[in-house]
Design goal:
eight-stranded mixed sheet; Rossmann fold; alpha/beta; about 230 residues; globular
Length: about 230
């Protein structure tokens, strides 16, 4: 099939029959605490599907707090949702008016849920004057980042497995400067231990990102970085 030859899956290339069958054959778990229900924008009221296991979705409290803090920067922005899982963060940004969103996810079960969710976003977006651009890269983050064009993103959201963040971060960093806009914002969700690692990284001479704030939500930390101006 043609889609197997593509390096990514634009939303328009999804096999809608497969997506619909997947929803009948396997029911994905939705969180009882409503953390995967959207409450703002054209996707308001939409319940997101999530894989039954193996992923850790961003909680509704954290997602809403981050999105509210970025509200003035979201309209028209180009969003990167790396380690996307169900796509909750990128989808909420789209619902709030982002111009495009690129989702990176390599897990098979997470990809099934992500495609189902984006099919619903696509359906709802048809009521908009201009539908957002949506892309999926079903591969590991290092490979996917290398395939992005220069200065492609205004807001970059990273939510890697907490325990693996310190070892994965050096592999991801080289592409961050290249693919981010001059005034880009980088947001990273982590556990508290990894937030200290990120703080030390930002203090390094070659980090090229300023740590502007870190917010704590229980055992979760969210770190905000702004791209440094060229010397």
């Amino acid at each position: 099939m043609l889609r197997r030859k593509l390096p990514f899956w634009p939303l328009s290339s999804l096999d809608w029959t497969t997506v619909l069958i997947s929803t009948r054959v396997k029911h994905f778990a939705s969180e009882d605490n409503m953390s995967l229900r959207l409450t703002t924008g054209f996707c308001s009221g939409m319940s997101l599907q999530s894989p039954p296991e193996g992923t850790r979705p961003t909680s509704g409290k954290v997602r809403t707090a981050v999105m509210n803090s970025l509200q003035l920067r979201i309209p028209g922005a180009r969003i990167l949702d790396a380690f996307a899982g169900s796509g909750a963060v990128g989808i909420e940004a789209l619902s709030r008016g982002a111009g495009s969103a690129t989702f990176i996810e390599s897990g098979a079960e997470a990809l099934k849920a992500l495609r189902i969710n984006l099919a619903e976003v696509d359906r709802r977006s048809k009521t908009l004057p201009k539908a957002p651009i949506i892309r999926i890269f079903p591969m590991n983050a290092v490979k996917a980042l290398s395939q992005q064009n220069p200065q492609s993103f205004d807001i970059l959201w990273f939510d890697p497995p907490y325990a693996k963040l310190p070892e994965q971060w050096p592999l991801l960093v080289p592409e961050l400067i290249r693919i981010s806009a001059d005034d880009a914002l980088l947001v990273v969700e982590s556990d508290l231990e990894s937030s200290e690692f990120l703080k030390q990284w930002a203090e390094g001479a070659d980090a090229l990102w300023d740590l502007t704030k870190q917010k704590q939500y229980g055992k979760i930390a969210v770190s905000f970085f702004e791209k440094k101006e060229p010397a």
